[in-house]
What we know:
alpha+beta, Phosphorylase Kinase, domain 1, Transferase(Phosphotransferase), domain 1, 6-stranded antiparallel sheet, 3-stranded antiparallel sheet, 9 strands
Amino acid sequence: MARAKGALKKGAVINDTYTVQCLIGQGLFGEVYRVKHKYMGLQVLKLFKSSYVENTDLDMVTNEARILSGLTHNNVVRVFETNSFLGEEGKRFFITMGFVSGESLAQLLKREILLDIPVALSIQQALLRGLWEAHRQNPPIIHRDISPDNVLLSYAEDTPQALLSDFGLAQSVDQMSQIAGAAGKYLYFAPECFWGAYLPASDVFSAGIVLYRMITGVYPWDYDFSAMSESDTSRITVEVAKARNCYPKPPSLRNPKCSANLDRIVMRAIAKDLELRYRNAEEFLRDVRNEMGNVCDSAETLIALESLYD
């Protein structure tokens, strides 16, 4: 398989500050590079696609980056800068973030399918700690795009640490636009998001889907996108709404290791009715933390986490 080529070459220097080391990957918004900052060490540089820039209010992106640069938490990937430079194809825009040495939760789930309960709860607790830091800001910062792709697992310490990434990027583009990978993103959207409403409880719903996937290996609802292209957002939206007319199966029916209390927590997080759902990450976090104490001690959790290195 041919290796993907990016717009930036290894060794290129951006704004006399960032030296490109390698292309990490490509996503909805553009290309992702590992770079070395002149003074601050390794960072990640996300180079925006022209299509993203054309459909985005860059002043809003810059303002969001300024706000997010003040969001410092152990479970949030730090945003440093939004800027531009003159490249071969004209003016290019980018954002820089903290570098995480590890993998995404999506990559882990692709390899493992489902996780041990202690591992899943530990990752979920970290995710919710970072999310609560955002939700408690005034005004609250809403992520809008929580999925396994945006949960990064750092293997730099003795035990893996989970960090929530890409705050701000999802807020700056119309979620209902014709974007690649719409089906994968829509599976995590709360019902109200399809109507343009984004609340802290909307992030809770998405985080609940992530937890459901970690402990069962599947989604709460069954979808059929086989006859659709990923850009056919209208049909995808209809399919998601149709599937969610059915009541989802509690996690314990798919994984008998899930307790009745864990069933209750997950089902509350993914409740379609806002009145029944956790209002924010703090409420969700409190119950997840209590469940961790009920189902596993710290030694068991540590052993399970260390297994991720194997």
